[in-house]
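User: hey, got a sec? need Serine/threonine-protein phosphatase 4 regulatory subunit 3-like isoform X4 folded
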Amino acid sequence: MGAPDRSLATSNSMQRVKVYRLNDDGKWDDQGTGHVTVDYLERSEELGLCVVDEEDNETLFLHRISSDDIYRKQEDTIISWRDPEYSTELALSFQETTGCSYIWDHICNVQRNLHFNSLNNDTFHRMNSELRELPAIELSTLPLILKIVVESGIADQMRLVELIVANQDFFKKLMDIFLICEDLENLDGLHMIYKIVRGIILLNSSQIFEKIFGDELIMDIIGSLEYDPEVPHVQHHRNFLKEHVIFKEAIPIKDPSVLSKIHQTYRIGYLKDVVLARVLDESTIANLNSIIHANNALVVSLLKDDNTFIQELFIRLKLPTTSEESKKNLVRFLHEFCSLSKNLQMVQQLRLFRDLMNEGIFDVIADVLQSPDKKFVLTGTDILILFLNQDPNLLRSHVVRKEGIPLLGLLVQGLITDFGEEMHCQFFEILRCLLDSFTLSGATQRETVVEIFYENHLGQLIGVIAVSCPSEGLYRLSNKVGHSGVLKNQSTVKPEILSNICELLCFCVLHHPYKIKSNFLVDNVIDKVLLLTQRREKYLVVAAVRFVRTILSRHDDDLTSHFIRNNLLKPIIDAFVANGNRYNLLNSAVLDLFEYIFKENLKSLVKYIVDSFWNQLVQFEYLTSIQSLKVKYEQCLDAFGTRGATLIVLDPRTRIEERALEKEEEDYFNEERYNGTGKEERAVVEALVLH
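Assistant: Yep! Here you go:
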């Protein structure tokens, strides 16, 4: 291949630079300022750097570009090198970064052409037209091999892959040369080998990957990629893998093929994410990911089929003599084992999770959830979520058994315990999945879980809200709430916990309308949840409003009457009025509630709100929602033929007092009939509600 056209070289734009030379004292001397070009040297076919003085247009500096790797680009505006002819250090400092990049690219192009011209022209022509064989793997042929790897077209790349795969000693010989260059500190050779190995990896051949990722070659391959010519310092990837990466075996793995795949998978991931992270294309990354997934699937498959391995794992987990640290390592291994199982086929995944359930994994998780170590508890909840994502009925089938009932209690306890915000979300999602009534399978198990939850744990959650929102002389916790021992220290419950409880109650309203109705009417649940309106955290007040909105969306006449009879919207109206003219989430939530009431034509609620609270709401009459509520109220009066009645009927305080008396009577009868363990009486009420 010949040199570039002279017209191309002479058309280069001038770049303003300062020329520096390193003197004997180790200081840089300023040789002058001018404009640099890449051009042919006088009476020569060689290209060089020419700097023309900007003042007198005299030649300030000439340098023949060498094929040796002597040039360095620093800080985006400096190109420096050691001139082999004069044994001195030189540097060009550019005014603009674009000018520096422009000249740097030309130097690299000239060096590339010099490398190619040094090759035998006949050999190169034969290789370029049709790639028939690879040259011998020697230090002297590295430039030719580099050109073949980097410059081959698509057809030649396919042929190149075939030749490399067919040559059993290709990589062994290449790595032998790499080790020799490393011993001799031959940077030119090391840089070429880096480019060759990188180019071969970018060929993205699974057959080649199978060879280079083997135990014999992988560390040398990673070592050859430590000498990136574009990185100023040598990387130490092998040192990191050998000395800093520690492989922990929670339980000894006796199969050498499994161990080999585990180590190989980690190294491939390290190569992908660290060593070549900035040079790999998307298709190569996808291929490497598929190899990692295949390895993970093979490891999990081999381990799950090893009955002695699984049995020994659970024996150690259940032994009382197993140390706390060993148990944590075993559970972490179990978590990773379950996580990697997603690489298996769906049928194999389900079989594995069933086997783990039969071995007693849920009993292990129950112990984990009682640990004071928050991270350890998080690992346990992660395992449960993996099971729920696979098949929720596996966990449900355990919870409905006598020995599994405590696990549900631990999940509820986790929801109301201060584990941190992330943990609250974990417990919330697990409970919501267990109580989900929209799943198509496992109806019997699901109903049993729901029954256990309402019988044993709903009062526990409501009690947490009640004790965290004290109200003077209005609501007192009685033995009726149950689980009083759990609530002793709940007076400082974190707001996030209360928010999650309220969210779970909204979920229950939508999924279990009949269970909710019977429990809400008997135990004054709505009254207690509305205590959240007394909290100073506005988002908790909004949560209470959303809870009411969710209940009203059921269009249940009994629940609607319960709201009116017990004046249950008063806390929400009070909070709305206290919020004043602030346009915030609370304002929007209450106005949305009003809009829902009049749009759904809930006439009894419209009349109740206007009759009881219009004196408070009249100051907000300029709001569209309040106006619409008033219009709907007047339409209701027209329908009843009472249009002439005043908006504020008699004395509203009298109406509130009457409702308070009604509520007092209802509480009295509730205490008489349902206090204590009256399951039979409750069953009668539930039967009446259901019918």
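Quick note: The mean pLDDT is 82. Let me know if you need anything else on Serine/threonine-protein phosphatase 4 regulatory subunit 3-like isoform X4.
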